[in-house]
Each structure stands twice: as C-alpha cells, then as structure tokens.
Amino acid sequence: MTKFKKEDEIPELFEIAGGRYYFDLDQLSHFIRIEKPESVDDILGEVKKEMEDNDSEEDDDESNPMDAYAQIIDVTKWETTKVMIESVLSEQGPVDEAMGYTKLSSQLSIPFKLSFNTLLNYKIIKEQNGR
Fold first, then answer.
1. Helix (H, G, I), strand (E, B) or coil at 125
2. Range 84-97 average pLDDT
3. Alpha-carbon torsion, ordered 52, 56, 59, 60, to 10 deg
4. 1: pLDDT strictly greater than 50
5. 120, β-bridge pairs
6. What is the pLDDT confidence band of residue 89, given thresholds at 50, 70 and 90?
C-alpha cells in the first residue's frame, strides 16, 4: 500500500484537547476490509467462478479476479465509520480548548464524544506518540 509520508518523517500536528490526533487511513482500510476468504466466497458466489472462467480465456493483461478481494469491504462497518468520522469533522458547538479536558468534554455533543471514543478505540483516530 502506498503511503504519502515518509516513515521516519514526523509531521507537525495541531494540538486538539491536549493531544495531537489524526485519522489513520491504513487502519480504516484494514478495519472495513472483509478478510475471510469464505465470507468473500459467500458474497461473490457464482460471479467469482464466472470471472475465473472468463479470465482463463482472456489475455494475461486483464486483472486477476482474485484482486477483487482487496476491494471487498464490510458495508455496515464502512457506513457506520463514515458517519462517525462525519460527526467528528462537523462538530459545530462553541469549543474552548484552553479550558482543559474536563471543561472541554462538557462542551462537546454526545454524538461527537461517542464517535471520537469509538474511532480512538479502534485506532482509526490515533494520538501522535500516543496510542
């Protein structure tokens, strides 16, 4: 998987509520991907078999149907995660981070807190030099 930043390069992040947080897109991709081949077989069924038959008849220039595994995601996880990310990114309340973590948490909405905590728990939001 291609990464846009160099591994040894530590970006300068803005401080948010006493920490430097960011979305880990690699973790998000891993989280929503369906990894069990038997689950993929159940989903694809006969379509996968037909693709394999057609691929054996075509040139090798075409992509392998097994590459489709990388494209199959758990839609329920993706949609739920997408809504949580939208909740975090669209928080509109008046927030004064200078008041400290305890006061800050009382200013944030319940959907924001729940979304932020869940994304942090599943390591989709990470704290730099932290979790």
1. strand
2. 84
3. 70
4. no
5. none
6. very high
CB 43 within 8 A of CB 75: no
Determine the Cα–Cα distance for residues 88 and 82; give it in Å rounded to an integer. Answer: 10
Task: Find, among 19, 17, 20, the residue nearest to 100 by Cα.
Answer: 17
Token code pair at residue 73: 């995601």
Whole-angstrom Cα distance, residue 84 to residue 87? 5
Total residue count of the chain as it appears in this document: 131
Tell me how far apart the alpha carbons of residues 24 and 1 are, in angstroms, rounded to a whole number. 13
Say if residues 18 and 129 touch (Cβ distance below 8 Å). Answer: no
What would the pLDDT profile of 47-63 be if each residue is shown by its tens digit?
666 667 666 655 555 55
Contact 78, 32 (CB under 8 A): yes
